[in-house]
Design brief:
Layout lengths: L5 E6 L2 E6 L10 H15 L6 E6 L4 E3 L4 H4 L4 H20 L3 E6 L2 E3 L1 H8 L2 E5 L3 E3 L13 H9 L1 H10 L2 E3 H6 L5 E3 L4 H13 L3 H15 L3 H15 L3 H11 L10
Parallel strand pairs: 2-3, 3-5, 4-6, 5-7, 6-8, 7-10
Antiparallel strand pairs: 1-2, 8-9
Bound molecules: acetoacetyl-coenzyme A (CAA).
């Protein structure tokens, strides 16, 4: 499918989705969010894709935020609708069975930081800059920032970043647990592909169940989270991949997984 605001490419079992609004440092307007939602919906139904990498076009920005020129005259109802569209779109990254990696190649501010946080894993170029500048615009983070940032780095640090609007570099983002890894800018895509390859070597059905268990568990209490894990653990025993993975171990050979 062709998009106006996205570039989509597949490399083997990896889909690379690039936000492509170069005139606004890849700011997310409603049209871009709508396309991203449709694109992720397609990927989520594809059996051929195992990992989705989300990145921004150009050398400067991942995503510089929601589109301020679209929001400047928006009404409260329009603001809410934009937030709900982003909620649906970004939640897809967490609920889709495929693993999602944000390749953060530059500015990840506001909605950009929020987009990266909805991905399972964040790998940052050493040029990446993170921040939630919304309170400096008289609004608050509206694409999940007040929720996901606190869950990722803790309430105290999330409040500091949101209230001060401070921008932090990739090393600081790594120090506080906002990103998984920092790599030189020119190695960013290779690092993401290397992680995707490792992931692809494992059972995709098991990974999808593990992802769903982690997502459910972080939104509920420990007892219910453990109950979900037990159910999904049991479910994995019904798969070809479980039999193959364990048999291969005992036969001292590499497992051949089929994702079922
Ligand atoms: N929305 C719309 N346009 C944007 C934009 C955004 N979020 N970010 C950058 N642009 C545009 C600029 O207006 C500029 O356009 P013109 O060339 O027409 O003037 C172009 O992109 C290049 O930007 P700059 O000239 O500002 O580039 P810079 O190198 O001087 O600064 C920057 C880069 C620090 C990222 C700066 O552009 C910036 O601060 N951008 C806004 C960041 C921001 O506040 N993001 C949060 C938005 S609100 C939000 O995201 C709400 C939410 O929770 C969903």
């Amino acid at each position: 499918m062709m998009y106006e605001h996205l570039l989509v490419e597949t490399k083997g079992q990896v889909a690379i989705v690039t936000i492509n609004n170069p005139k606004t440092l890849n700011a997310l307007n409603s049209a871009t969010l709508t396309e991203l939602n449709a694109c992720l919906s397609d990927i989520e139904q594809s059996k051929d894709i195992r990992v989705t990498i989300v990145t921004g076009s150009g050398a400067k920005a991942f995503v510089a935020g929601a589109d301020i020129s679209e929001m400047v005259n928006a009404t409260p109802a329009e603001g809410r609708a934009m937030s709900l569209l982003a909620k649906e779109t970004f939640s897809r990254l967490e609920t889709m069975p495929q693993v999602t990696i944000a390749a953060v190649n530059g500015f990840a501010l506001g909605g950009g930081c929020e987009l990266s946080m909805a991905c399972d894993i964040r790998i940052a170029s050493e040029k990446a800059v993170f921040g939630q500048p919304e309170c400096g615009l008289g609004i608050l983070p509206g694409f999940g920032g007040t929720q996901r940032l606190a869950r990722l780095i803790g309430k105290g640090r999330a409040k500091e970043l949101i209230f001060t609007c401070d921008r932090i570099d990739a090393q600081e983002a790594y120090r506080i647990g906002l990103v998984n890894k920092v790599v030189p800018a020119e190695e960013l895509m290779d690092a993401c592909m290397a992680m995707a390859e490792k992931i692809q070597g494992n059972g995709s059905y098991a990974i999808a169940l593990a992802k769903a268990s982690i997502e459910t568990g972080t939104d509920t209490d420990l007892a219910n989270g453990l109950a979900v894990e037990a159910t999904n653990f049991g479910l994995s025993f019904a798969t070809h991949d479980k039999k193959e993975g364990m048999t291969a171990f005992l036969e001292k050979r590499k497992a051949v997984f089929v994702g079922e």
